[in-house]
Amino acid sequence: MSRDRRVVVKLGGDALASPERIATEARRLVELAAEHEVLAVVSARRGVTDHLLGLVEGVRSGVGGSTPGHAEADRAVAAGEVVTAALLAFALNELGVEAVSLDARQAGVRAAGGSGEARIRSIEAVRIHRLLDRRVVPVVTGFQGWHRGRVATLGRGGTDTSAIALAVAIGAGRAIFVKDADGLRTADPKLVPDSQPLTAVSHGFLSAMTAAGAKVVHPDAARLAEAHQLPLEFRTLTGPGAATVVRAGTPTTGLRAIATHVGSSPASQVTAVAAEPAEAVELVDDLRAALVSAGVALRDIQPAANGPRFVVDRDQAGPATRALHAAFIRAGSAKPDGARRAS
Q: Where do the domains of the chain lie, and which CATH numbers do they carry?
């Protein structure tokens, strides 16, 4: 089987949150493996990483420690992915598909940097290639690399980057992300319930959205996929097909959305992102007026890669997102191409 038919599937914590969901995703992988060489990359089950981080902080506090990062703490936190990978590989074997779980060392994922903030340096995928050639499904732990003989975690969202880096390393034809979220939309549906689905977007648009705060995938993963023009699919836990496809050649005119970043600071950032930046720049005055009409106090307007970023008080992030979405997405006839096809 040619390498362009290799597929990487990234399974997030929601997709693997319970034994029932692990079994469901294993059955999906069995179907995919009937026609493709499949590599799975897994996160820890939902809530497990936070639990392990809490244990680390509890022990640190109990002994009066203050070291910000430590190799043993990384080893403890990385255990969540090790367990999940083993459970998924176990499920696949029980379903009749040979699979083997691999940690970062076994998968050849080399990292550089300190504990909790390492970055993937290279991938020596010899073992993975051999497994795929034998039609064995490697189930690789995400969120971690191997550095100086020890495990090193990559930080939040690191499994997304692991999946893209592994896809590039094995010459995969695409990477599939299985998430609780319903693909990419014109705004966070928790803030804008009537946001519209985006069924097809360009790599550049996805990178701009994630850089502005959209949580569909980690920004580093989006940029890496863009650099290698790797096709992506975002699938839901229940949907049989892709909710959003990211590929080269996707029309960009009229492709736009609102990205909201609510951090720990008193201020939040709400960005009008357009695949064609000029479409956003031309509407700055209209967008500012929409915020004023909605009673949102504007702290600042800052330039961003694909559109203006509006800085508002943290408690105004929701109203600001809804006001900007109404003004930006529905202005004139400029609806996103993906939203038109999905409506």
A: 3-180 (3.40.1160.10), 256-342 (3.30.70.260)
